[in-house]
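Section 3.1: Structural characterization of target chains.
Under the original work plan, the team committed to producing a structural model for every single-chain target entering the pipeline before any wet-lab resources were allocated. The record below documents one such target. The sequence was received from the expression subgroup and is listed exactly as submitted; it comprises 110 residues.
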Amino acid sequence: MDFVVDHAVAIAAVIWGAAILVGIIAAVVAGLRMWRRSRLAHGRIAPAAAELAEATDRAQQRLDAVPERGEELRAAIHELQLQIEAVSAIAETAAEAADTFRSPLRYLGR
């Protein structure tokens, strides 16, 4: 018991350092999980955005061939284009998030 009383500051510093280390490790693990999920989401969103773009192109070609329902089809195409823009924005944000999570690894040399 005398050891604890004599070295209270050193023991407190070791406990404080261990608590900080555990917090840093938890933050790194959470960051890696988020990075993996954002990469997975980006991998799923990119093909869907490409499919939407192809669907829009096909719809535009059909629209040019069928003039009687043109206004209705133009509105539908416009909605598809807005959805493509939204999906692309989400994909860009996911890519930026992945880059943000990767940036600390550059400082560590990995």
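The chain has a mean pLDDT of 83.
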